[in-house]
Design brief:
heterodimer; A: 161 residues; mainly alpha; B: 201 residues; alpha/beta; two-stranded antiparallel sheet; 6 helices; 8 strands
């Protein structure tokens, strides 16, 4: 097998260095301002995705539903996190990790529901604007997940038991 | 907020760049579109399907592609590998930033093999995206065509062959170098070697 190494012309390199343009500080300020223009619309979309997750969490679990949950949670992670909703993004990431782990224990539906309810709570105005309330929601979620993980550990260590 | 490694007063010109955004949802695509608009990018094409991306790739030349491979209607990983292998210039060499939120473990290796220039975790922050674009624009890595993999060299630096092995490259040194035979040169002696001198005939 012959491995070919070469240097193709990359136009981006020339464009970026061309005279004109704007400073990096200006670029970042303008990007933040442009992003702010679509904030409300994007957060409405986040709420719609959470509402769909509520429906999925209420139904019996299967691989297809888990795939959809993973996709929706990833969208919430991206869109919510992109607008600085870091707690919401953390919950969404935690749900992605959980559903991609292939958990089929009896607690599956409960864990998914706790995540989805945590997201719903974090979107309520009285919680979103209250740091202590957000911290309490996250602490509650972490507690449920860690207890579930601890309960699953012995079962994984001795599958024959 | 910017990184301490980024010079906020440095200028960047993206006014003639043509960018393709391939995202999982219209809102995610719009978010990237707005960020790019702020960066001064004049022409951004946004799609949310591999099918639409394939159509565009055939008709336009791009300077940068930002892609979430979990695009809804298909397989973004296969699309990217196909693009690199297509041989259709200049798009087959275009810088690609692969963006992903939480990737399933089965997709991590596939992501590595797509031939993307850089990977960025979602959510995307404007300062991180701009840093990656600038990094890619200054990247000096060669392109590698090894059949199974086509894309920028995945090794960011060469640190010699692994310990206790002879290496596989023709220019890998087979013997240890040993100690220097003479004392190190001073900086003045080095400067004198490279300083232009008048030649007297």
């Amino acid at each position: 097998m012959v491995v070919r190494r070469f240097y193709p012309e990359i136009r981006l390199a020339k464009l970026v260095a061309a005279p004109g343009g704007q400073t990096i500080a200006e670029s970042l300020q303008r990007a933040a301002a442009e992003l702010e223009l679509i904030r409300e619309d994007c957060l409405r979309d986040v709420d719609a995705r959470i509402a769909r997750m509520v429906e999925l969490a209420a139904a019996p679990t299967n691989d297809q539903a888990d795939d959809e949950l993973h996709g929706l949670a990833n969208d919430v992670l991206n869109e919510g996190g992109g607008f600085g909703l870091t707690d919401l993004a953390e919950v969404a990431h935690s749900l992605c990790v959980f559903v991609s782990g292939g958990d089929r224990s009896s607690a599956h539906q409960r864990i998914v529901t706790v995540h989805v309810e945590a997201m719903r709570a974090l979107r309520r105005p009285q919680v979103e604007g209250n740091e202590a309330a957000r911290a309490a929601v996250l602490a509650g979620l972490r507690d449920v997940v860690s207890r579930h993980v601890a309960a699953e550990e012995p079962a994984k260590a001795s599958p024959a038991a | 907020m910017t990184s301490p490694n980024i010079n906020e007063l440095a200028r960047v010109n993206l006014s003639k760049a043509v960018v393709l955004v391939i995202e999982t949802t219209p809102h995610a695509a719009e978010m990237l579109g707005q960020i790019l608009k702020g960066f001064g990018v004049a022409e951004t094409h946004r799609v949310t399907s591999v099918k639409d991306a394939e159509k565009l790739i055939k008709t336009k030349s791009f300077d940068l592609i930002l892609v979430d491979p979990d695009v809804k209607d298909g397989d973004g990983y296969t699309f990217l590998r196909g693009l690199r292998a297509s041989g259709v210039e200049p798009n087959c060499y275009v810088p690609i930033v692969l963006m992903s939120g939480h990737a399933r473990i089965s997709n991590v290796k596939r992501a590595r093999d797509t031939g993307a220039n850089f990977f960025v975790s979602k959510p995307i922050a404007p300062n991180v995206l701009l840093q990656r674009i600038l990094w890619i624009a200054r990247d000096k890595r060669p392109f590698v065509d090894a059949g199974a993999y086509i894309g920028p060299d995945r090794r960011f630096k060469y640190e010699g062959p692994p310990a206790n092995s002879d290496g596989r490259r023709a220019n890998d040194l087979k013997e240890p170098l040993g100690d220097a035979g003479e004392p190190n040169m001073s900086q003045i002696e080095i400067d004198d070697l490279i300083k232009p001198q008048k030649v007297l005939v």
